[in-house]
Specification:
single chain, mainly beta, 21-stranded mixed sheet, elongated
């Protein structure tokens, strides 16, 4: 009985030793092992149709990448560095640590995962399909960047992050001409997954007509919008849209019931982080109740202010005129409010600007 041969290649080019350069690799069934001090340089393309790689070292690819099945063993802890001015990744793969080197343009034609960390440095990562790039590590700091950004080239491309902490998770979305990052912060430590898409076009082009809106919504941004899709979990989430100080829109609208734009309770505040100094303002939408599998479009807009509310002590809900209280549950959505309390003679006995629930 003949046994199928098993090919096992040990690559042990030590970082302090001589580097060996491979012009191109086509793996059709070979097992490759790199220890933690090994470096494999692929000067051309890497194509993987079969076999497996246990990567505990560093693989640098200077050409295109193509794979349509499992490449790396789950035990891999090494890094794959894509290093090119312009290159494509085709198919699917789950990388242990993934680096998009320099300021190149990396075109993802498929679905790719980074299991431990994702570093986009100064690059532009272009996505073409839904969930085209996923960061599986729930550590908020597992995403590293300098000036890099993720470009969802069309209405389908989206970047996914897994999260299980009451911390800020950055989605550095943008295009060459326009950067508009999103920060999601869960309100619990339960596991959640969210996909974010950024489209630098008029939302009406995709069917989110800016003419279909409630009375509380005025002008809607016709330059760009975001879409957020909950893929798992049920925790309410705080959504921050990072914008420049020059942005004229002060409010936020959401596409609801697949029919119209409606006011999304929000406040515009200063963004004190040094992470994105050119995005100095934040439109904050707290406790967003995004349903599982329901992709919601958000756009900046001018929102009509609430009308004055007046309560008279002559009216009593229970009729006894004693210990009556009134509560405006969404008072925090109107930070510029002016609260006045009068006595029966019409004299102001209490006044406070910017009253809030705390």
């Amino acid at each position: 009985m003949l046994k199928s041969p098993v090919y096992l290649i040990f690559v042990a080019v030590l970082l302090f030793g001589n580097s060996k350069v491979f012009a191109q690799i086509y793996n059709s069934g070979v097992k490759i092992f790199l220890d933690k001090n090994a470096a494999l340089y692929v000067q051309g393309d890497y194509k993987h149709s079969a076999g497996e790689v246990l990567n505990n070292g560093t693989i640098t690819v200077e050409g295109d990448w193509e794979s349509h099945n499992t490449v790396f063993k789950n035990a891999s802890t090494g890094t794959v560095v894509m290093n090119s001015a312009a290159t494509s990744l085709v198919g699917m793969a789950t990388f242990p640590n993934l680096v998009f080197k320099g300021n190149g343009v990396y075109y993802l034609k498929g679905k790719f995962d980074a299991r431990l960390s994702l570093d986009i440095e100064d690059s532009e990562v272009q996505l073409t399909v839904s969930e085209g790039l996923r960061l599986l590590n729930t550590n908020p700091l597992s995403l590293v960047r300098n000036n890099g950004y993720i470009n969802s080239l069309n209405i389908y491309g989206s970047f996914v992050r897994y999260m299980d902490a009451d911390e800020n998770y950055l989605y550095p979305m943008g295009t060459k001409a326009l950067k508009r990052f999103v920060v999601l912060r869960p309100t619990s430590v339960a596991l959640n997954q969210f996909a974010v898409t950024f489209i630098d076009e008029d939302p009406s082009k995709e069917g989110f007509s800016r003419l279909s809106k409630t009375n509380s919504v005025g002008e809607i941004n016709d330059t760009y919008y975001h879409k957020i899709n909950r893929l798992s979990g049920a925790s309410p989430i705080d959504v921050s849209f990072l914008i420049p100080s020059s942005e004229k829109f002060t409010g936020l609208a959401a596409w609801v019931k697949n029919t119209q734009w409606d006011r999304a309770i929000s406040s515009r505040i200063a963004n004190n982080t040094s992470l994105t100094p050119y995005l100095a303002q934040t439109v904050l939408h707290k406790n967003a109740d995004l349903l599982l599998g329901n992709e919601v479009a958000f756009a900046l807009a001018q929102i009509t202010s609430a009308s004055p509310l007046e309560f008279y002590n002559a009216f009593s809900p229970d009729g006894d005129g004693k210990n009556d209280t009134w509560e405006v549950k969404n008072i925090d959505a109107f930070p510029d409010n002016d609260l006045k309390i009068f006595d029966r003679s019409g004299n102001i006995v209490y006044r406070m600007n910017g009253y809030n629930s705390t």
